[in-house]
Design brief:
Elements lengths: L4 E7 L8 E5 L2 E7 L5 E5 L13 E3 L2 E3 L6 E2 L5 E3 L19 E5 L2 E6 L22 E9 L3 H7 L6 H4 L17 E3 L3 E8 L7 H5 L7 E8 L3 E7 L6 E12 L2 E10 L8 H19 L19 H15 L31
Antiparallel strand pairs: 1-10, 2-3, 3-4, 5-6, 6-7, 7-8, 9-10, 11-17, 12-13, 13-14, 14-15, 15-16, 16-17
Length: about 350
């Protein structure tokens, strides 16, 4: 797992004036929306006696501990201890650790790490969000798998004929044409060409003829975001899947996703769009949860030309580990020491054999 990134951990609509628990990278946090409409995020433990703040309640822009009523401001500072007489000084250490919060694309993003604001990697773009030309749905599901395996499944251009046979029943014609990978500091992307999916479900309604090909632009935004942009090669019809694959811990991933389509904007079509996404998840889930090692290895597996995008993602992971951003024990290479953190050291090349 990696620190020093923004993580989308919950849909904005789910965070209200009641405490909302979230778990990220093995740590428990609590979110709440104050009366000013802003979301606060802090560790889900009262500094007094360790009770969970999730069981408490919100007062104005503050949260109360359910055990002894300690009241904390949104910045984590304790401002009231009911057991003390009025005027009693509150200990300076009476402060709960908080996280920076942003709301974007209808999701709550938390920054986990120690970088100053001007050095933080950006929240990935989703320019289609809020555009009336795109109909949106959302959903979530859980994997008994490491988040890197989930991300890589969304970068894989060769598994569809074998895992998703309902739409891609082409096991005898599964060759992946060469594609080019583009990378920057925080993402890797590629446009792939494939045989078009079968005209089933909504595709049967919108695509009126067979096409020679369809395309998908697959992107990994570090460290845990998938963007899959499908072009059906018919009248400009497209579908975008934007997923935050949340590392709950080293063995569990919670995916919260947004689906955007620029065709059939009527609400009645949402059920099929959501069903296709959930069916795809269930098909992938059986394979991804069987993979060993559970974490994407940075050496040892045999990667081919069709795996070029996954290789680029692994190189980005290694760069982050070399910066000293690894959290937990899931990466089998040591991070650089704190004294060399951020020194621009060149990453070690990822092996492919």
């Amino acid at each position: 797992m990696l620190k020093n990134f923004w993580y989308a951990v919950e849909f904005s609509a789910a965070v209200t004036g009641s405490p909302t628990p979230v778990k990220l990278m093995g740590e428990s946090y609590v979110l709440y929306r104050g009366e000013d409409g802003r979301v606060a995020a802090m560790r889900d433990r009262c500094i007094h006696r360790g009770a969970s703040l999730t069981g408490g309640w919100v007062e104005g822009n503050c949260i109360r501990c359910p055990y002894h009523g300690w009241r904390y401001e949104a910045d984590g500072t304790c401002v009231h201890i009911p057991a003390d007489a009025p005027g009693t000084p509150i200990p300076k250490r009476a402060k709960v650790e908080t996280l920076a919060v942003e709301e974007r694309y209808g999701m709550v993003w938390l920054f986990v790490g120690d970088l100053p604001a001007e050095q933080r990697p950006p929240i990935p773009p989703l320019p289609e969000y809020g555009d009336p030309a795109w109909r949106m749905i959302t959903g979530e599901y859980t994997w008994n798998a490491h988040y890197t395996r989930v991300v890589e499944s969304g970068l894989d251009s060769s598994h569809a004929p074998f895992v998703h046979s309902v739409f891609f029943n082409l096991r005898d014609d599964a060759e992946v044409p060469p594609y080019e990978v583009q990378t920057d500091n925080w993402s890797a992307t590629a446009r792939t060409i494939s045989k078009p999916p079968k005209r089933a479900g909504l595709l049967k309604l919108i695509v009126k003829r067979d096409r020679p090909f369809s395309s998908a632009t697959l992107t990994a935004h570090m460290p845990n975001i998938n963007r899959i942009h499908l072009d059906f090669n018919f009248r400009g019809y497209q579908y975008i899947y934007f997923a935050s694959n949340i590392p709950v811990d080293e063995n569990t991933t919670l995916t919260k996703w947004i689906g955007l389509r620029n065709f059939l904007p009527q609400p009645w079509a949402d059920w099929n769009s959501r069903k296709n996404t959930n069916d795809t998840y269930l098909e992938d889930k059986a394979v991804i949860e069987s993979q060993v090692p559970r974490v994407v290895p940075l050496t040892g597996e045999i990667l081919l030309a069709s795996d070029s995008l996954q290789l680029a993602y692994r190189k980005l992971i290694r760069q982050c580990v070399e910066r000293g951003w690894a959290v937990g024990s899931d990466y089998g290479i040591p991070p650089v020491s704190a004294s060399t953190n951020g020194n621009g050291k060149a990453p070690v090349e990822v092996g492919v054999g």
